[in-house]
Amino acid sequence: AQSIKDFKAAFASDAIRDLTGMHGPLANVQKAVQEIVEEVLTRPRLAGLTSIKNADAGLYTHSVDVCVVAVMIGRALGIPHVRMTQLAAGCLLHDIGKAFLDPQTTGARAVREHTTLGYELLRNSPDPDILAPYVAFEHHEHQDGTGLPRHLIGSNRIERASAQYGSIPTLVGEIGAVANAYDNLLSGHEGQPPLPPDQALRSIYADAGTKYNKAIVDAFLHVVPVFPLGMEITVVSPRLKNYKGVVTRVHSNRLDRPVVTLVYDALGKRIQPQQVDLTQETDLRIQCGGLHLGH
To answer: Taking the model in full, what pTM does it have?
Structure first.
């Protein structure tokens, strides 16, 4: 606790204000934010942006991916452009508190400290609204009050009554929580192996209402494809069972029923590429994974 107090005092210093000011290193964040927001808003869906996760993806890659997913959710919710840039900046910097953690700090203590330190750093910037410090503070909070660091209880709604401000997580914090959790599931986190996108989405959906704002999860499921573009898939339904292929098109209105191109039969033998539109072939079911191009 003493170390947190020491950091709070340091973050209020002129040196930190220089760091986070318009001529400091964090000034570049705004340029990156504008580029990401403009790029994401020109796309109807995520498609392949989060399709392939590298097991050793670093904190920078994680932060960018969280930012991209959060902006897509924000667009689905109709968040104004100015608020969107704040959300994007907050997500890019949501884990900045980890830079001040002792590498030996793990578990709940690490969550409490990196969220609090990130918040204190960003709220002491010359323009804290721009860097949205509440994303850093609240991206590990849960709707049922089991999250950290403040055990806030959410409302599972988008609209907020004025009397609720400060007593429940902010909207940007709740969006950041969903985007952060999804990317952690794809990448593998805290000793857990990475999940394919279809399983990661099921995990988020299963925790909607308890961990994550249900209304935000509903929006999330409308912008993130179950089977991203370029994803390797295996047919699991009786017809064409164990045929393998790749997602070659994502329908914006049916993110769970893409167009796939099958390239291996059930015995693992190459076949003439066969394109199948799952919106038409309603009896076929697929799952992520299973294709080995070196077969």
So the answer is: 0.85
